[in-house]
Design a protein that fits this description.
The structure is a single chain. The chain folds into two domains: 138 residues, Immunoglobulin-like; 321 residues, Purple Acid Phosphatase, chain A, domain 2 (4-Layer Sandwich). The chain contains eight helices and 25 strands. The structure holds fe (ii) ion. The site of fe (ii) ion has 6 residues, from loops.
């Protein structure tokens, strides 16, 4: 029998496979698991209060996730400090009448009793439903969907969203996203915010809609990050989104610390060693709460977060990591006119990720190449004087040479249809990516859709006062709005449609969503059209 190289906390025992004698490749723990069996008295209360999730699909499977935590805000989540066994079931119908697959998993205290089960052997391009059971209790049922195989793609519908500051507003947009049952949800990060408003109302323009109970002003340690994720995951709207569709999860800065870069804290005086410890705690908690694969389990302060997905011959998705390998923001971060931002050595992805990205573009042609990433790639000049380019150093503008390398590699690979999605700035934006932003006559290398926030920065405005000035300063920018919401993308062989959906308030509950702007790109022509 194959010996496992993975920690036993991740092992699943697929009994059906075992019965069928397909033991080859099956991982069994050694030594034997001493887990509390299902039905044991070790779990008190509802252990599934944090819900279920799925993520990182491929053609034949996906990850299903839960975390056993009957008291999620208490240290240890209200669980015994020992492994607990649970079972999982997969069906093709939401009522789970016919069980297609089932197996056992073990939730371990060293991973906060989170469970990641990687399923395979399912059919491509299909909906599946799943749930967990332990101690005679059942989790809610979640829906996932496998990615299509070539010839089966049809139209892919997916959402890009992120930036969900708990205090700033309600997660109403997540409920609307859940109702739409997209094929997948690309989360660009700022899933949590590591700090909290210390003086309610005093130092903020945005009212505090929900106060965060307990624990410190800023997360630094594993128990603190776990507490923050647990609080967020108790939100019913966010849970509904995780139940509704698989996520492609990534992180930006606030999963660790505002504007962190590599091993640098935003604050002077934090040593590399101290920041590495914080990164390790932050990544551990991120992993524990995201439906990602074993390959994304952190190793100390390092995590492999960039990865590739393929949806038939229609869409390749490269999820990027623009935090872990980047250079520190030049000129002291913030809005700057900064010659250093143009230095050739500067990087956002690091050499290895850059090479991986460029090689992936050359492998097999695909209709649309999507970069699912965090901070805006477009030039965003806030100074109306054409002679002065004042940009934000935390975005791709802070590493112009890195952006240029990416554009030139896309051109060399003859990518016909490059689409970038991002977030971070709490504004809806759409722009054409000019191969040379300094040349108004430059051709477009692709388009970018920046999604606003779920709640961060509060209600926002339909038409910010600065919009005319910003649109004039950035001729490639075609749309700007600062209400809360998300982007729904519909992708077919002939066109890419992006719907900017917004809610008018995140301070008041149950607000409906409206379609604020529809933009369309025809395949082969990287130009934005309002529709
Ligand atoms: Fe944010």
């Amino acid at each position: 029998m194959q010996k496992c190289s993975e920690p036993v906390g991740f092992l699943t025992l697929d009994r059906r496979r075992l019965l069928l004698g397909l033991g080859a490749g099956l991982c069994l723990p050694a030594p034997a698991i001493r887990a509390a069996p299902a039905g044991s008295p070790h779990v008190r209360g509802d252990p599934f209060i944090l819900g279920v999730a799925s993520g990182d699909p491929d053609r034949t499977g996906f990850v299903i996730w839960t975390r056993l935590a009957p008291k999620p805000l208490e240290p240890g989540g209200g669980m015994p400090q020992r492994p607990v066994e649970l079972s999982w079931l997969v069906s093709a119908d939401p009522d789970m009448r016919v069980i297609l697959r089932q197996g056992q998993a073990v939730a371990r205290p060293e991973f906060a009793h989170a469970v990641h089960v990687e399923l395979d052997g399912l059919a491509p391009g299909r909906d599946y439903f799943y749930r967990f059971e332990t101690a005679g209790l059942r989790s809610p049922v979640g829906r996932a969907r496998t990615f299509p195989e070539p010839g089966q793609e049809g139209t892919i519908r997916f959402v890009s969203a992120g930036c969900q500051r708990y205090e700033d507003g309600l997660f109403t947009a997540w409920r609307h996203i859940a109702a739409g049952n997209p094929d997948f949800i690309a989360h660009y990060g700022d899933y949590i915010y590591e700090y909290k408003a210390l003086r309610v109302g005093a130092d903020r323009r945005v009212p505090v809609i929900r106060e965060m109970p307990g624990l410190p002003g800023k997360c630094l340690t594993l128990p603190e990050f776990r507490h923050r994720y647990a609080l967020y995951r108790l939100d019913a709207d966010l849970q509904a989104a995780h139940r509704a569709a698989p996520f492609l999860s990534s992180f930006d800065d606030h999963e660790v610390e505002n504007d962190w870069a590599g091993f640098s804290s935003e604050n002077e005086g934090v040593t590399r060693a101290a920041f590495a410890q914080r990164r390790a705690a932050a990544f551990q908690a991120w992993y524990e709460h995201m439906p990602v694969r074993r390959a994304q389990r952190p190793k100390g302060p390092d995590i492999l977060a960039y990865r590739r997905f393929r949806l038939g011959d229609l869409l390749q998705v490269d999820v990027l990591d623009t935090r872990q390998y980047r250079d520190r923001q030049p000129c002291g971060d913030g809005w700057k006119v900064c010659p250093e931002a143009r230095e050739a050595r500067r990087t956002m992805l690091g050499r290895q990720q850059e090479e991986w990205l460029h090689a992936g573009w050359r492998e097999r042609p695909v209709r649309w190449n999507l970069l699912a990433q965090q901070v805006p790639m477009m030039r965003f000049d806030r100074d109306p004087d054409p002679a002065l380019v004042e940009t934000h150093m935390d975005k791709w503008d802070g590493a112009e040479a890195a952006r240029q390398r990416l554009f030139e590699a896309a051109a060399a690979a003859r990518l016909a249809n490059l689409v970038v999605i991002s977030g971070d700035v709490h504004h809806n934006r759409a722009a054409e990516l000019r191969r040379n932003f300094d040349d108004p006559a430059s051709t477009n290398i692709g388009v970018e859709f920046v999604a606003t926030s779920i709640s961060s920065a509060g209600d926002g405005e339909d038409r910010p006062a600065s919009a005319p000035k910003l649109l004039a300063a950035n001729p490639h920018l075609k749309f700007l709005n600062s209400q809360r919401g998300y982007v729904l993308h519909e992708v077919s062989a002939s066109r890419w449609q992006a719907d900017y959906r917004v809610v008018d308030s995140v301070a008041r509950p149950d607000r409906p969503e409206t379609l604020r702007q529809r933009l369309v790109v025809e395949a082969g022509k990287p130009v934005l059209h309002a529709a």
